[in-house]
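Appendix B. One record, verbatim.
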Amino acid sequence: MFKKSIFFFYLVFINCIQLNSQTLVFAEIQGSPIISTAGWNLTGAAAIGDTGGDADIDPNELILTQNIGTSSGGIFYSQPIDLSTCYQWTSEFDFRMFDGNAADGIAFCFLDVPPTGFVNGGGMGIPEFANGIKVVFDTWDNGCGANPEIQIYNGIGYNECSVGIVKVTNTAGNLNFLRSNNYNHAEINYNNGIISVSVNGTLWLSTTYTVSFVGYMGFTASTGGANDRHSIKNATIYADVALSTAGPDIVICNGETAQIGSTTNSNYNYSWSPSNGINDPTISNPVVSIVNNGVTPISQTYTVQTTLLSNPSSCPTTDNVTVTINPILTSFVNASICAGSSYTVGGQSFSSSGNFQVIIPDGNSCDSIIQLTLTVNPILSSDQQIQICQGSSYNFYGQTLNSPGIFTHLLQTVAGCDSLITLTLSFLPISSSSMQEEICAGETFTFLGQNLSVTGSFPFTIPSANGCDSIITLSLLVNPIPPAPSLTSNSPLECPGDLLTLSAVNIPNGVYNWSGPANFTSNQVENSLNVEIENTGIYTATVSLNGCISPESQINVLIENIFTFDDFDFPNVITADGDGINDSMDISEHFQTCLTFELFIYNRWGNLVFKQEYESTAFSGKSVGGDDLQEGLYFYKLVYVNGEKSGFIHLIR
C-alpha cells in the first residue's frame, strides 16, 4: 500500500500572543461557525467542512482528504520563515484520522518546496524532492514497523522505511488512540534543532535535526488503496517573527501630510529609512511631510525594518512604501460681463457677480485652482412677464398699471450696459379646480385641517400658488375593506418534497399577498411548491382591493411521513413460515419514511445473499435467486442518504 497525504490548513496571521517559549503567533486557524483560508495555498482535496469528530455541525474543520481512495490534500502558509535566524517555533493542532480503513495519515512539514497539486502514494502527500522536516502520524503499515506510528524525518522526500527516520511504533498497542473518531491534540516544538512531539500532553518522541534554510510550514495527508477521512482544527503556529507593515503606496498633494506604516505593536522595534521628511523614524506609523513647489510629481520610497523588542537579532523583516507628492498650481482671473451673459472658465459657466474657485483636473490627482473674481453689469435689455390677480395693480418704475398690456422702460448705467426693460403684464382670474381621493373604511383623510371619513364632495377656498384665491372641490370615495380570503390546500402531504397547492377564492381585481415558513411569499391566487420539513407550518394570506387590505386568513401545512431511519430501532427477527405474521422485513412500512435506501443481507461467511432497494420486494427469508435461506443469524447493512445501520437478524421458519 502506497500512501498519499496532503493536509489542508488555513492560518490567519496575527501578532502579540504569548505562549510556551515563543512570544508571537506566527499563524493560526480558528473561527466559528466557518473558517477562512486567506493567506494560505490549498492543494488537492483540501477543503473546509465538518466531520463527526466534534459536537457541532459547523464548517469549522479543515478536511484534507475524504474517506475515499487515491486522494490527497494539503495547505501551506504563503509566508516563508528562515530557520537560520528564527530558531524557535511551536505548532499546536487537533487532528482526526477516521471513517475509513486506516490509511494513510497526516504530516506537519517544514519544506523548501511545498506541494502544488496531487501527490501520490506512500509519501504522505509530501513531494518526492521536497527537502525539510516532516513529523508524521502514520496509520498504515508498509512493512517497516507496527502502526500507528509517530515519525520524525529530515531530508529529501519521505518514506517510512528511510534510513535516518526516527519513530515510535505501536508494538505494544499503546498508539492505537492516534486513529480515533475523536480529535487528538498534538504539540510539535523546534528549539535550535531539537524537535519534540507530544500528543494529548504526553511526550512521545524527540530528536535533533538542525535546519538553516528558508521554508514553508504546512500540513499534508493522503489515501491510497485504503483510506480515512483526515482533518484538523484549532491549530496555531508560534514563532518569534515580527511583522513589517509599511502600508500601501500613497499619493498626496503639496501641502498635505501622509501617515505610513501600521498600528503600533508594543513588542516591536521599528526603524525607517531614509529619515528625511519623517517626523519620527522609530515609530510604527510616522507622518511624512515633503514640500513640492515644482510643476512635476516627486516620489520617495521608505523602508521599515521590524524586530522583536525582546530579541532584536531574531527574525528581522522589512517592507516598503512609496509616497508621491503632486504639485498644486493656482492662478487669478478678474472678469466682468453684462447681465444675461455668462463667463466660462475650466468648463464651468458663471453669470452672477462674486468670487469663485474653479478646480481643473491635471491628471495627477491634485487639481489646479483658478480664483475668479466676476463682476456682472446690468443687461442691455430684458423682458419681464408679470401676472397679478384681477382687480389689483402693478407699479412699474413709477407707473401704476391696472390693465393688461406691454410696457417699456429705459435704464441708464455707468458700466456700459444700458438696459431696455419690456414688461408684459397679465391678469389672473380666480381659479377653481377639483381633486379625487380614495380611502379605506375606518380611515380618515385630512385636507386643509379637516378630517373626512365618508364618501362625498367637499368645496374649499384657499390661496393659490400665484397669490389669487382659488376654489378646490374634493371628491372623496370611501372603499370597503374586502373580507378575509377563503383558502384551500392539499395538506397533509405524504412525503417531504411532495407538491403542495395553495389556493384562494379569487376576488376580481384583488391583489393577494401570501407569507409562510422559510420566507415564503407570493402574490398569486394559486401557488404550488415542493415542501420539505422546513416548509411546514402556518401559511397566511390577505387580499387587497382598491388599496384596502382584508383581514388575514391562515392554513396549516403538514407532512405525514417525516421520520428518518435514525428515528427507529431495526427489527431483529422474522419468522418466514408463511403464516402471514412477521413473514418478511418491510423496511418502508417499519420505518414509515420516504427516504431511499439499500438493504444488504449477508450470511455468516460474509456472502451477500439478498439485496433490496427502495420500493422493491421486501426480505422474506429468500435469497437473491428466490431460494429459501436456512434458519440462523444473518448480518444486515442498511445504507441511506445520511448514514447507515448494521446488525444481526434472526431468521426462523
